[in-house]
Amino acid sequence: MPGLLRRQAAGVALGLLFQACAGGGGDGFGGEAARSAPPKVAEATCSDRSPVQVERTESSPEEGGASALLNPSDSDFPPPLVDPDDLLSGGPAPDGIPPIDEPKFVRQCSVDWLTTDEPVLALEIGADARAYPLRIMTWHELVNDTVGSAPVTVSYCPLCNTGIAYDRRAADRVLDFGTSGKLYNSALVMYDRQTQSLWSHFTAQSIAGALTGTKLKTIPVSTVGFADFRRAHPDGLVLSTDTGHDRDYGANPYEGYDDPAASPFLFDGEADPALPEMTRVVGVSNEDDPVALVSEKLLEERVFEFEAGGEPLVALAKPGTTSALERSRVDQGRDVGSTGVFVPVVDGRRLSFEATERGFTDAETGSGWDIFGRAVSGPLEGSQLERLQHVDTFWFAWSSFHPDTRVALK
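RESULT FIELD:
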């Protein structure tokens, strides 16, 4: 199909999908029927279910100036980092998929509407730990929040299956982000409301507009099962379904998308043929030496030692997290596990790990560790491995944004 016609058809297809999302339902991608056996619902262990008041960092739009939302090639801007013709319109207007700008939270111990294996994005800054359920993130994609007094944006792109968190302080201002309605390499393109510059969700960089070239600091975030978050963070907070929007939270509008034999939706880039495009991978974005690990293989190994940029690292994986994108309900997807990537050193001592029934142990001290890289028992109890930014994503997205990547485990 010629490029223009293909883009028009793709835009119509995505527009129809997002119309279904906005209406709170839809047939998604036509995956398998839901399983008959209901998943185990997490048991609530405290009675206080009232919303938790949390600090918010406010920001405000700047007056005047050109908008990359309207014209990313405007001569007032630096040259864009990507070809504007490669920014595909999915149909919805900016914020047609509405971000959550005033998030409300509840105590994790009061949550009985998540199943034990449901995927959540787990973010921890200081003593402030929060879970952002994918049953909510799938419908909103962005949450502008303040965690541990730091202004952050938590993002999830269903089409590339990637959760990333950013510190939204950049260019001497505090930004907040919305969905632009555009895609690049089938990945979410955000815009900031202060300057209306466009940003790549995947690279955390402004790709067009007044802030072109500016990069956000990313904050390690993990996709884990709710039970793992609950166990690690007894005082943790969970994003509430009280979002101000009417959505069928728990339904998956992308049913059937997480299929290794499928093709990526609206993908207009070039994926490395080393792996099938929809293969799940763990990506570690060392600037000079990006590395990918095949998620299914890592889940079999449970522990994998490797290097990136000459630095020794360890990847950990454990079962107990469902795919948010496979079946009609988020809690009914297959078990794809959860992952973490760490520097395996404590107090200058290199550690080696092996998997156990409940987590991991190090050979040097026999201490027990969890998927967050925390020592939960033994001589090193209370220690924390240095966490590395990593993404659980699809190969087509990782390899198109990191064409020089190497596959260290497949």
